[in-house]
Every structure is written in structure tokens, then in C-alpha cells.
Amino acid sequence: MLSLLTVFGAGYMIIVGTLWVLQRQLLFLPDRSTPQLATAGLPEMTDVRVRTADGLELLAWWHPPDADRLTVVYLHGNGGHIGYRGSRVRPFLDRGMGVLLVSYRGYGGNPGSPSEEGLLADGRAALEFLAAWGIAADRTVLYGESLGTTVAVRLAAEWAEAGRPVAALILEAPLSSVADVAAHHYPWVPVRLLLKDRLEAAAHIDRVSAPLLVMHGDRDDVVPIRFGRRVFDAALEPKEAVWFENGGHEDLASQGSHPVVLDFLRRHVRRGD
To answer: CA nearest 166: which of 119, 201, 198, 213?
Structure first.
């Protein structure tokens, strides 16, 4: 019996150790090929380079807004690259809104390797890019998708505390934290002790003063809806949520998320449509 327990314990430690070593490969799933605007169906956008505080030159796609329209900063999830998000930003472009599609370090041909601090630095650089274009914070909408919601919340909180609140914060399939989601998928691993990248949203959302929209699918098996509800419950007013009964993790557009977002912006932000 003792030898069996020893073997079991050793096997468990090997598995946990392997997960600890490979955790960033499990969390960040980049497509490292360089995306193309034409393939993504975004010919009116332009390749630009965004420089981060630690000296990286990152690809982004940019289209300025018409007149006094809003600008959407789109922060994508942990997989693929910006080339897969063309249809997600098309409704904003078609309404004359500005769009900045942010590509993280290690994604889409960019240098560097993704990490929590790295993604936050990339997001901060994107906002400074907009500031250099003269896009005011109160005309900027932060749109986070999945893992990108944690970055969007942190950026919105930082800008609010700096006296530059953004116009609105949109969260699609938000994580309360990476630790919460990892513990759900690996309940037998002490993930809260082992994580290098915590990427928390619920812990920072009460620092955000901008109008908030949360969207989540009830059938999401990647980030279960209870984590989105946790973010929403912790947030300040004004806030709204739409829980899509038949929505999964990546199909909210087919469930009608775009009209929901446009209607929210129209009601909560000056010239928000």
C-alpha cells in the first residue's frame, strides 16, 4: 500500500510540475503568422506599429473615426491573432466608428512572448497610440473578448484613476480571473498557488466608472457564465448585462451581440452609434 501511495504521489507531482512549466503554453495560444488585412476582410484599415514601454514594435490595424464618432479598441482573446477578428469589428467600421485592433506580443508575427505584464503593456501602448492621434479617452470604447476582458478592465481602471475615464467598457465572455477559470478546469491542481499570470477582472472592475456592458453565453463551456456574472455583480453602475441563453464562448455574434453593443452605445454615449 505504501509503495502504491508513493507511486501515486510521485505521478501527481510530475503532472503538476509539468502543468506549472507549460502553463503559459496552455494559457496563451497565439497564431504566430502575420495576418493580412485583405484576408480578414478589412481593406479600409491600415497596418500600423505600436511601440510599447519596453521597446517592442507591435503590429496593429487602425482606421480613424469619421467626424466625432467613437473609436473602439478591440482586445482579443487568448487564441489566434487579429486576422480572425475582422467580422467582429466590421459593424463598427460600417458606422463610421474608429477601430484599433490590438495585436499582442508573440501574436501575429510580433516579437516577444505573452505574459500578464506584457499584455497590459501592449494595451497601454495602444491607448497611447490613440492619444497621439488626438482621440480623447471619453471618445474611446474598450472592447474585451474573453482573456482580453481582463486587459480591458485593467486599462479602464487605470485611466479612470488618472482622470481620463473611457466612454464605455464592453466585455464579451469575461473572466473573473484566470485563477478562477483554471481552477474550474483543473480542480485537482492548486492553481492559485502556481499561476504566473493571474489576469483578474472582478478584482478591478469596481475601479471603473464608465458605462459597462457584459455579454455572456449560458452554454459557454470555456469560461462558464458564473464568472461573467461575478464580474457584473462586482461592477459599479451604470451597468447592463445580456445573458444569451443559447450562446457559447465564441458565437455571441450569431446570437445578436452586435446590435446589443450598438444599442448600448447609442443610449449611454454621446454620438455612440
So the answer is: 213
User: For residue 96, what are the CA distances in angstroms to 89, 142, 269?
Assistant: 11, 17, 15
- Order of strands, sheet of 239-244, starting from the edge strand that comes earlier in the sequence: 46-51, 57-63, 98-102, 71-75, 140-145, 168-172, 212-217, 239-244
Identify how many contiguous H helices and E strands the chain contains and give both numbers.
9, 10
- Confirm whether 31 is domain-assigned: no
Q: Residue 61: which of 154, 126, 140 has the closest Cα?
A: 126
Q: Residue range 73-101: average pLDDT?
A: 97
Which three cell numbers, joined as nine digits, stand for 48?
Answer: 500600423
Is 77 inside any structural domain?
yes
| Domains in the chain, number | 1
pTM: 0.93
Question: What's the CATH number where 147 sits?
Answer: 3.40.50.1820
Band of the pLDDT at 194, cuts 50, 70, 90?
A: confident
Residue 234: other Cβ atoms inside 10 A: 15
